[in-house]
């Protein structure tokens, strides 16, 4: 009995031992299997890392194909075609329904920014491996948040402007009156090159202008034509193409508006109005919004009671408002390149009826910044041929390379007119160059303003937009009413700032290059170049905001030897040609930017 008991015990023990061994072997096999699975997963690069805001997809070198595309919200969608689905992985305890719920918890706004519901996102999936974060999925489609790359690939679209500018005021007194040196204009040398150049006029009355235009001229305080006007009026009235260069403040805008108005009245053509698109007869291009507004204001004043419709097209304003106005029919359209191309691409504007095409500040419009836009407009399939239109180009500075580009858009028999020193500064402006280092400029400016009896009508030019606002705030703290204008300000802010300065509610205007060209502001007595520009042409335009139409002006520039030395020699030449004192520190450096322009190069 005992033997049987022992044998049974031994057999039972052996059986238990075998079972334990089998279990151990099974555990070992399971561990090995788990290890193999983990190794296989590691070999196939299934492991992935995720943050709370990122859903990354694992890729295999030989069994994974990824195709990226944009969805409606700007999120990258990656479609994976794998031989083995993630749902087959034994260590991933993810139910498809929970995964789908987690996927649906990821929302995107209209700009592609993800909004994750933290309460639901964590409950959407579970993982047995804390070191390996799981990812929600749906039908093998994975969303990948790409952060900053998303913004660079699809930039944020600025909100549409709803600004509606005020209507033009028929304030004829806002134009600049002729100054004490206006009579000196008759002594300025004028060179006109071309075939059969029309004879210049001596008075507006002898120019052939209609009586209604002469009355509007009188209301605008135009009594005697300037040299550029004496030559431009007969040339344009004879339908000749022209490229003209004249000093700042010499009446270039009126020089082309007056003969065009007269031609539209003498030889009227039917204005196309169908409510679907606009066909202007005159197109005037401007590089800046402020100059475009000024041109349209002058054209509106000079065309008063003539029935000629002038409209304005520029950025920063409500598109629907400008669309409604131009679709009513326009004779003269003044536009900046960006908004005009936008309307052309929408087929709201065509050029079948163009009779006159004008580039105001042609050198700026034909440089690398706007040349492509101008070529796109002139090469548009609706633009009339060069021989069927009159093309005019005006500027105070016309570098040699710009003149050669301009020739491609003109008729072969065009006329070139050079008034005075091409590219030179107006001699009615007293120029002073002070050597001031960067961190001493603020104190130097305050000293100049303190020494000035009345700083009303002072424009301070800076290079950086943020500097304009900062400097305006500093001057306001020192009890100098100051406003600023630059490209980052909203259009209504820019117009209000300029209006406050014109109406003398603000004594000082701090501006960037947006205010350097063409602006005709009454009462500008002094220009301060807090930062000198990079080109000498820009310098000439800046100081040309004062000393207009024979009035006396003053320009003070801060020369920083560490920054401004590239234009030092150019400044010396400009000062010498304008009979100004040349400081000796400008001769320490010599730049190669400046190239004198020959008036008779055509």
From TrEMBL:
Residues 129-141 have a biased composition (Basic and acidic residues). Keywords: ATP-binding, Helicase, Hydrolase, Nucleotide-binding, RNA-binding. Residues 119-128 have a biased composition (Polar residues). It is an enzyme of class 3 (hydrolase). Residues 115-141 are annotated as: Disordered. GO terms for molecular function: ATP binding; hydrolase activity; RNA binding; RNA helicase activity. Its EC number is 3.6.4.13. The lineage of its organism: Eukaryota, Metazoa, Ecdysozoa, Arthropoda, Hexapoda. Residues 202-230 form the DEAD-box RNA helicase Q domain. A motif (Q motif) lies at residues 202-230. SMART domains: DEXDc, HELICc. Residues 428-590 form the Helicase C-terminal domain. This is RNA helicase. One of its GO terms (biological process) is regulatory ncRNA-mediated gene silencing. InterPro entries: DEAD/DEAH_box_helicase_dom, Ded1/Dbp1_DEADc, Helicase_ATP-bd, Helicase_C-like, P-loop_NTPase, RNA-helicase_DEAD-box_CS, RNA_helicase_DEAD_Q_motif. Belongs to the DEAD box helicase family. SUPFAM superfamilies: P-loop containing nucleoside triphosphate hydrolases. Pfam families: DEAD (PF00270), Helicase_C (PF00271). It catalyses: ATP + H2O = ADP + phosphate + H(+). Residues 233-416 form the Helicase ATP-binding domain.
């Amino acid at each position: 009995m005992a033997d049987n008991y022992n044998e049974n015990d031994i057999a039972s023990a052996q059986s238990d031992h075998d079972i334990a061994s089998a279990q151990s072997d099974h555990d070992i096999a399971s561990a090995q299997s788990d290890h193999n699975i983990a190794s296989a997963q590691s070999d196939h690069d299934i492991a992935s890392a995720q943050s709370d805001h990122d859903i990354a997809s694992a890729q295999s070198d030989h069994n994974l194909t990824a195709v990226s595309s944009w969805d409606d919200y700007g999120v990258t969608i990656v479609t994976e075609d794998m031989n083995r689905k993630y749902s087959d992985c034994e260590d991933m305890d993810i139910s498809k329904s929970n995964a789908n719920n987690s996927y649906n918890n990821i929302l995107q706004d209209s700009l592609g920014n993800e909004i994750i519901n933290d309460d639901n996102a964590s409950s959407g999936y579970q993982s047995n491996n804390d070191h390996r974060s799981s990812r929600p999925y749906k039908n093998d489609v994975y969303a990948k948040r790409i952060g900053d790359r998303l913004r660079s690939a699809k930039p944020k679209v600025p909100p549409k402007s709803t600004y509606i500018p005020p209507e033009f005021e028929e304030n004829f007194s806002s134009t600049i009156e002729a100054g004490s040196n206006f009579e000196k204009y008759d002594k300025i040398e004028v060179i006109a090159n071309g075939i059969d150049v029309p004879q210049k006029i001596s008075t507006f009355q002898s120019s052939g202008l209609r009586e209604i235009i002469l009355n509007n001229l009188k209301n605008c305080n135009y009594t005697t034509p300037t040299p550029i006007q004496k030559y431009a009026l007969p040339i344009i009235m004879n339908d000749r193409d022209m490229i003209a260069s004249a000093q700042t403040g010499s009446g270039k805008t009126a020089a082309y508006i007056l003969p065009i108005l007269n031609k539209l009245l003498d030889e009227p053509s039917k204005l196309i109005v169908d409510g679907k698109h606009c066909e202007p007869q005159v197109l005037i291009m401007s590089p800046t919004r402020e100059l475009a507004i000024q041109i349209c204001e002058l054209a509106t004043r000079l065309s008063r009671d003539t029935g000629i419709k002038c409209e304005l097209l520029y950025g920063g304003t409500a598109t629907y408002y400008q669309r409604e106005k131009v679709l009513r029919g326009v004779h003269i359209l003044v536009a900046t390149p960006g908004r005009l191309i936008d309307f052309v691409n929408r087929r709201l504007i065509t050029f079948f009826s163009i009779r006159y095409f004008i580039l105001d500040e042609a050198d700026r419009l034909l440089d690398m910044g706007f040349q492509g836009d101008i070529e796109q407009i002139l090469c548009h399939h609706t633009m009339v041929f060069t021989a069927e239109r009159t093309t005019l180009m005006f500027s105070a500075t016309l570098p040699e390379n710009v003149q050669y580009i301009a020739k491609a858009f003109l008729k072969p028999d065009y006329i070139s007119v050079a008034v005075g020193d091409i590219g030179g500064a107006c001699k009615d402006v007293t120029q002073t160059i002070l050597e001031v280092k960067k961190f001493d400029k603020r104190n130097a400016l305050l000293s100049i303003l303190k020494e000035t009896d009345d700083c009303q009508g002072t424009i301070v030019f800076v290079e950086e937009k943020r500097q304009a606002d900062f400097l305006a705030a500093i001057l306001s703290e020192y009890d100098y009413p100051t406003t600023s204008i630059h490209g980052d300000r909203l259009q209504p802010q820019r117009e209000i700032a300029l209006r406050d300065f014109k109406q003398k509610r603000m004594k000082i205007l701090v501006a960037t290059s947006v205010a350097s060209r063409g602006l005709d502001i009454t009462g500008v007595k002094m220009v301060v170049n807090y930062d000198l520009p990079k080109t000498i042409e820009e310098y000439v335009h800046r100081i040309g905001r004062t000393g207009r139409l024979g009035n006396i002006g003053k320009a003070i520039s801060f020369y920083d030897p560490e920054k401004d030395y590239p234009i030092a020699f150019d400044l010396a030449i400009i000062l010498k040609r304008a009979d100004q004192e040349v400081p000796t520190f400008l001769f320490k450096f010599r730049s190669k930017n400046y190239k004198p322009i020959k008036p008779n190069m055509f």
